[in-house]
Amino acid sequence: MDNTLENKQKYLGAHWGTPTLTTVRRSSKGAYVAVHGRVCSNWNLGEIVEGYLKLKPLSELTDEDAIEFFDIVWAKVGNHKNQSREFKISFGKDWALSPMSERYGLIPSGLFHGIDFLRSRGYALPWMGLSIETLQEYGWLKLN
Questions:
Q1: Distance CA 81, CA 65 (A)
Q2: Which of 22, 26, 59, 129 has the greatest number of CB atoms lying within 10 Å of its CB?
Q3: Long-range contacts of 123-128 (CB under 8 A, 24+ apart)
Q4: CB 12 within 8 A of CB 53
Q5: What is the per-residue pLDDT for 81?
Q6: Cβ–Cβ contacts within 10 Å for residue 71, how many?
Q7: At 127, phi and psi to the nearest 5?
Q8: Tens digit of pLDDT for each residue in 18-38?
Q9: What are 116-132's pLDDT values in tens digits?
Q10: Could you tell me if 22 and 142 are in contact, meaning their C-beta atoms sit under 8 angstroms apart?
Q11: Is the dihedral angle over the CA atoms 56, 60, 64, 66 positive or is it negative?
C-alpha cells in the first residue's frame, strides 16, 4: 500500500473516535502548536496531512486490557469463561502480541472484535498489510 493522503485518511478512519490524533494548528497569535484530540470529522485536510496517531506499543498492554481482550476474543468458548485472572493476562497478552497469526490452528470467533478493542484503547497494530515500522516510516504513527 502506497503512502498517499487517501490511504492515510483510511488509516485514520480505522481509529475514528479514539483520542490519539496529534497535529499542528496555527494559534491566534500565528504560532504553530501541537494539538491532541479525537480522530473525527472536524479535522481539516491540512491537519490530516500534518497529523499522526500517537499510539502505545502492544508491549505495554496492561493487565486489565489483556483480560478484556481475552474475554472478547474467547467470549463464545464456554470452557474459557472461568479461567483465572493470571491465565487471562498471560493468554491475552500472548494473543495480542500476534493477533493475526493462526495460533494453534485457531482463529477465535471474537478475534476481530478483540482487535477493534485494542485499537480503541490506543494500541498500535499493523493495518492492511502495513507493519508498525512502515506506518512509522510513512509518518502516520508515532509510538509513545
A1: 16
A2: 22
A3: 123/55, 123/56, 123/57, 123/58, 123/60, 123/61, 123/65, 123/96, 124/53, 124/55, 124/56, 124/57, 124/58, 125/58, 125/99, 126/100, 127/11, 127/14, 128/1, 128/10, 128/11
A4: yes
A5: 74
A6: 17
A7: -145, 125
A8: 888 777 666 666 655 566 667
A9: 999 999 999 999 999 99
A10: yes
A11: positive
The pTM for the full model equals 0.82
The Cα 11–Cα 15 span in angstroms is 7
Supply 137's cell numbers. Answer: 516510516
Distance CA 115, CA 110 (A): 9
Asked whether 14 and 143 are in contact (CB, 8 A), the reply is no
Joined grid coordinates for residue 60: 505495554
Confirm if 134 and 45 have CB atoms less than 8 A apart.
no
Helix H, strand E, coil C: the string for the chain is CCCCHHHHHHHHHCCCCCCCEEEEEECCCCCEEEEEECCCCCCCHHHHHHCEEEEECHHHCCHHHHHHHHHHHCCCCHHHCCCCHHHHHHHHHHHHHCCCCCHHHCCCCCHHHHHHHHHHCCECCCECCECHHHHHHHCCEEEC
- Residue listed under C-alpha cell 493522503: 5
